[in-house]
Amino acid sequence: MESSTETASKNGAVIPESNRGRPRKAGGPKPERGRKGLWDSVKQQKYLYFMSIPFVIWVFVFSYLPLWGWTMAFQNYKPAKSFSDQKWVGLNNFIELFQDERFYLVLRNTLAMSLMGIIFGFVVPIFFAILLNELRGMLFKRFVQTISYLPHFVSWVVVAGLVTKMLSIDGGIVNDILVALHIVDEPIQFMAKGSWFWYIVTASDIWKETGWNTIIYLAAITGIDQEQYEASRVDGASRWRQMWHITLPGIRSTIAVLFIMAIGHLVSNGFEKQFLLGNSLVTDYSEVLDLYALNYGINLGRFSYGTAIGIFNSLVSILLLFTANGIFKKLTKESIM
Prior knowledge:
mainly alpha, two-stranded antiparallel sheet, 16 helices
């Protein structure tokens, strides 16, 4: 029997008799949980936010704060003068950059070596990671992994010295093998041939970074459901079929994301490899945009010109990144943003 002051609702909640039949106000106060949901989430994750503060500060100081220096590209910058005393020249440095024939030669070298690095630097680590995953002996697998990772921790100064010595005409192992097999009659001066330089840089980079680049692919492979392999073996699929129809599709997202990021660095491939392996005989093939900014900007005291080259690098990298991301998003539904 119902009380005189309360009655049970259909869902079991108790409603005061004075409020029965009255419509509920749409603009009433929201539940307390909804109002404080965001703050409660922040309180729960406060330690993670505190831990991220040093990294946020680091990114701001070293990545965003230096953007103020881009103003140098629009000035005839003189280090002895203050900012207010600098002479503004507008786009003169960019006009001079695009009118320089050397710039287009350097851009060709940069794009050529970057494209070769993307093509071979992507295919080889993926193939190597799949082969490592197929190894059944754990001891041998770990040994191969360790050996392949080690070159990554070797400085480019050491790598350049090793490559130069191996390709030397005086006791270089490559020339010794070629002569011993009667493939060539006399040693070849590899480091003096500009047409060979791109291939030497690409091969050196692959040897140094292949093992390290396989780590993320191996991690992605371990996330593939093992039941798929078991089902394919029941159906009689060979290992090659499993790699092609299960492993590669399983790491497609990882490949797409890394490939998009690599395209974003197409014109910013650094200068260490080219600087250490290059020489005066192959300058027309070894000089890249970063070296061009160093040689014709900073070394000559043309800080504004060097800054203009850096801005060109950054803007082209951002454009390539967004373009590649948009294309992959439409074609493969994979993207990084």
